[in-house]
Amino acid sequence: MAARKLIGQILKEASVIHEGMVQEALAIQRDKGGRLGEILIGLEHINPIDLARALADQAGMAFLDLETAPPDPAAIKRLDAVTARTYGVVPVKIAGNMLTVALSDPINATVLPDIGFATGLEVEGAVADEAQIQAAIDLHYKVEAADAKDQMKELVDALQQEGGKFDLQRGGNAMAVAMGDDLCAQSTFAPPR
After folding, report:
1. Which residue, of 3, 88, 102, 147, has the fewest CB within 10 Å?
2. CA terminus-to-terminus distance, the chain
């Protein structure tokens, strides 16, 4: 098996940066830690799209620019919002039994079998810019979020009819639902990133 190319090497071969830029970023990495690609972005030597292309090349995966090739609505329908947000992926196309999902870091390709299980499809990953993925998730799953809000309102209305007083209390990362003087349920949740 051939050795994996380094991000700096891939970016240099693509004529995006030169050796001096790589050395500058490596010096910062030695002093402060961090991922080389993120350091190069911070130094404004590359942009997030450059990094996504390099990561795709390094992993042997396809690169997708979601601004020029937006997700197919048929693919979006195959993956629920919770799974998309949890894994930070967006389905982009479906061909037969194959679903292609965009992810920002090929290291996260380990989630592909879980997505396959959730969808009942074969799944392949492609690399895209993280901000584009988040924007696509926000755009394509906003209707589902609105539906969830409507369902919560219906539940609140039903609970008020059944039990009278209904309070939805939220503090920190804890949410409690109280009816009258009794605490009905309490759960801890982490808001989506």
Report:
1. 3
2. 36
pTM of the model: 0.70
In whole angstroms, what is the distance from residue 46 CA to residue 82 CA?
32
Residue 171, strand partner residues: 174
Q: To which residue do tokens 């940066």 refer?
A: 17
pLDDT for residue 158: 72
Tokens linked to 175:
């949410």
In this prediction, residue 169 carries a pLDDT of 47
- Is the residue at 68 inside a domain? no
Residue listed under structure tokens 């490596």:
26
Q: What's the pLDDT score for residue 144?
A: 56
116 CB neighbour count, 10 Å cutoff: 16
**Does residue 132 share a domain with residue 79?**
yes
Lookup result for tokens 């970016």: 11
Assess whether 130 and 158 both reside in one domain.
no
Q: Which of 52, 80, 96, 50 minimizes the C-alpha distance to 145?
A: 80
Domain count across the chain: 3
Q: Is 54 part of a structural domain of the chain?
A: no
- Give me the average pLDDT of each 10-residue run along the chain (193 residues): 83 96 96 95 96 94 95 95 92 96 93 94 96 95 68 72 55 41 41 46
Please check whether residue 29 lies inside any domain of the structure.
yes
Residue 14 belongs to what domain range?
A: 7-46
Domain assignment present for residue 85? The answer is yes
Q: What's the CA gap between 167 and 181, in Å, rounded? A: 10
Which DSSP helix (H) or strand (E) runs through 123? Answer: strand 122-127
